[in-house]
Amino acid sequence: MELDHLLRDAVRRLADAGIPSPRADAELLASWVLGLSRGELALKALTGLEVSGADAERISDLVAERCRRVPLQHLTGSAPFRSLELRVGPGVFIPRPETESVVEAVLGQLRRLGEEGIRRPRIVDLGTGSGAIAAAVAAEFPAAEVHAVELSAEAVAWARMNFEVLPDHAAQVTLHHGDLRRSPELLGELSGTFDVVVSNPPYIPADMVPTEVEVREHDPQMALYGGGEGGLELPFAVVAAAEELLRPGGWFIMEHAELQAGPIAEHCAAQPLLESVHTHRDLTGRDRATSAVLARAQRGDVAKWRA
Ligand SMILES: C[S@@+](CC[C@H](N)C(=O)[O-])C[C@H]1O[C@@H](n2cnc3c(N)ncnc32)[C@H](O)[C@@H]1O
């Protein structure tokens, strides 16, 4: 079958199934099966490439799965995230483009620390999922000592795969399997020494079930729902963990839903150990992350405040 004909058929089927970006999805699935870039695929379609029966059948089967709203990233087994192609699949949250802005803010902070003479900053990613944030930071700031905490055993397996392909992964990234609410014990003597804490925790309120089938049925429940009132239980647990993990003067940033920006900023401002609370906008201008700094007091004072 001619590639052009096959693509047109795939686009029509995907559009009929209500897929929001039928052409992009058809091209990405065909590119993946044929081992071509999207640019090469477009050229081959124009020049009348004939696709073998086996490849045409494989593409058609994947299109059928996509029509049943299986996420594109599960079908190709990968998700682009900053400079990386992360391996993803069932059991792990698919990284989102807005989280790339959080990584950008982290890199800015790491560069500022470099200017202050901190050459090997220590950073921890709480709820690492596929390892997206931790792997991107390790790839783009190789001097950083990166730690990642994750509770789901399935997600840990995906994160491990994504860390193992980093050039110097053994020296750069340490994965800790456990509950972020217990991260001070999990990280032991490193607690109180981190320069940066970053997190994209589960934050969806229980009564706001996502409308997108791909999210509702394929992202793990543990990755979605924050628990407690307004989905804020885990985000607030991240704030508490950050207070324990950071060194005095250390900085944390957390992604959240736009509606949670106010309550999270208020919560952070109410913590006696936190200062310089700041809300960050994503590329579309929405308030999607909050950062704060652990007060630059002596640890003894901090211990007193905590008592
Ligand atoms: C929204 S996902 C974000 C994943 C990844 N950081 C990203 O940005 O793509 C939240 C992650 O937190 C993990 N998680 C949920 N509860 C946790 C807990 N109590 N301790 C550690 N990780 C947890 C989930 O399994 C999931 O991988």
**Overall tally of domains:** 2
CATH class of the largest domain: Alpha Beta
Walk across the major sheet and give the strand order: 5-4-3-6-7-9-8
Rg estimate, integer Å? 22 Å
SSE succession: HHHHHEEHEHEHHEHEHHHEHEEH
Query: Which range best describes the helical content: under 10%, 10-25%, 25-40%, 40-55%, 55-70% or over 70%?
Result: 40-55%
Alpha-carbon distance between the termini?
A: 73 Å
Bound small molecules, which ones? S-adenosylmethionine
Which structural class do you get from the secondary structure elements? alpha/beta
Describe the protein:
The chain is an alpha/beta fold. It has 2 domains: about 70 residues, Helicase, Ruva Protein, domain 3 (Orthogonal Bundle); about 230 residues, Rossmann fold (3-Layer(aba) Sandwich). Helices cover about 45% and strands about 20% of the residues. It has 15 helices and 9 strands. Strands 5-4-3-6-7-9-8 form a 7-stranded mixed sheet, with helices on both faces. Strands 1-2 form a two-stranded antiparallel sheet. Strand 8 and strand 9 form a beta hairpin. The longest helix has 19 residues. It is elongated. The model has no long low-confidence stretch (mean pLDDT about 95). S-adenosylmethionine binds next to helix 7, strand 4 and helix 12.
